[in-house]
Amino acid sequence: MIKKIWNIFKRDLKVNKRNFLSLYLILFPIIIAIGINIFAPGIEDTTVNLALLKEQNESQIRFFKDFANVETFKTKEDIEKRVRERDNIIGIIPDGNDYYIMPEGDEPQELIDLAKTLNSLYELDVNIEDTNVELIDLGKEVPPLKQTLVNGVLLLIAVLGGMLISFNIVEEKTDNTTSAINVTPTTRNQFILGKSIIGISFVIFGSLSVVLITGFTDINYLQLLTMILVGSIISLLLGFIQGINNSDVMSAAASIKVLFLPLIGSVLAIELLSDKWQNFFYWIPFYWSYKGNKLVLSGTGNWSQILIYSAIVLIISFVVYLALHKKIRKGLE
Question: Which parts of the chain span the membrane according to its record (predicted)?
């Protein structure tokens, strides 16, 4: 039995090596993890951007660079042109012995106030060494945006695992080997299990790649694997359904995209909506997977919470399985 399942998995692996779209899906987690590392702001990054003249005092430029991203320009006109661009950057321009602040007008007031404060501190010759404030952090070393992006990508990888299965089912249909399974010693359950391995392997490989590349090394990996595997069940089930119902790879990929809507909705609900709106999202397994992953990535989750979220996802997945299993078995006849 194990040999038959293994042979099905090896065949899928061989087919995916020849398919560009499948290869792209397999490499996607690594590409997106590198992108998150490059573009997500670090915990010590500042969001204050200042524009100064190159001819301004060197010590002033160094002072501002300790607290803000500083860009220098040759003329006042160059600064004005830069300030008029779409992002938030504030010009600090000399005017005789004083300076004036040049915002575009639509920047957050806090940003303008911070630019004024920095300029005042420089003019008063106040340095970091002059402060008597003691810095005590609460151990939050990962930017919230990075954690949210990684969590969202983990859900996306589960969907892509289902997409990979649908590609392999479509390929079997194209070769007319799906119905041929019925006249071989391989049972339908063994076929389904064999086809699932490529999707599960991809989900585990992709999720661990993203977590490790983005630097979430100090977490409970057993808890993470529990949430990943449980959360991917529905995607894998829908991968079978879409593979059976579609006759080419592109239409199968387009059908799987329907999962993106509840996935994105779950993330936005948890991150943006108040408690009174949360009830509307309880039926979505991605909602509970996201909450569980969030606890694991922040290192604040205990096993009771992880098991509760996993149990909820399992129950929802079981209900979906009851609704779909007849279609899957019939499609493989």
Answer: 21-40, 149-170, 191-215, 221-241, 253-273, 306-324
